Amino acid sequence: MSMRKIGVLTSGGDAPGMNAAIMSVAKNAARFGLPLVGIKRGYNGLLRKSTSITEDLQELQLDTILDIADQPGTYLRTARCDEFKDPQWREVAVSTLRGMGIDGLVIIGGDGSFQGAMRLCELGIPCIGIPGTIDNDLAYTEMTLGYETAAQVCTDAIRSIRATSRSHDRPHVVECMGRHCGDLALKAACATGAEIVLVPEVPWSIDEVAARMNKQLIKGNSRATIVVAEGCWDSMEPFDMYTFLTQNGKQCFEGEPMSANRLASVIKRKCGNAEVRSTVVGYTQRGAMPVAADSAFAFEAGHLAVKLLHDGMSNQVIGVRKGQVFHMPIEEALKTKREFRRDLYNLVNDIHIGK
Q: pTM surpassing 0.90?
């Protein structure tokens, strides 16, 4: 099928480098003589959920978006769209695309966004996916757009926290994002010399962490850092936090979930009332200016995505393998099994134990 006009959207959680990818798609669409339409707020824009078409779809001209590449966030906005799981709503999306004369789509997002791309391909809309998620949880590729920036934000935050921890002799719990993937926390822990890292991929216990922290305190390391991934609570062995904290003089509510703050409270009381503090790095990981690695990947991925559509390719995702940008079928990519770097995890947690 010959491409006459293409569209681009960002879906799911925003990631640093999404704007750089949009800019690259726009430049290469112009290079191939293809008009480009930006679809706003992910798949919601295709469902025409706003009262005005300009709130859902926008012609992207190079002169109006020339300076967005270095900006954080996503120019097209983003959102999740549960309605898109319904086949009837997907038909609405196809009608929108046909009505706008859009023959193919570049979709920037994570696994859920790629699932949506596959459904559109089944309905005759050629789609190319660019991986945009700070979690780095797509196994087929060595990196996802935004991961390197988010890792740098976490690293900078932990370095600052370790400096003030050293000044006050206070251990610290730092929580990184990553959903059900521990890559961000692990990379930041490796980069900062953190003494303990906890991730959803590896089971752990409160007593084990407290024993490690006690060993650090006995050795005179009163500013040890525990880096935790936000999904690590799922791999924690059962622990009656409510009973433990209330019996040790800390107010707690029954059924309250474990958190970085609560972990710091528990470790404090298991380690001789050491002044353990906590920080959640939070959404600063998503809203940072992209580092060079993410911007460079966006540049290549945007070019390749448009070229694939122009050459008649569909149902493909772009990734990085052995440092080279490549493409493969979406379904095959999503079936790829992820391998967690257990060797690095063990190294972080074991290297500080000593004899």
A: yes
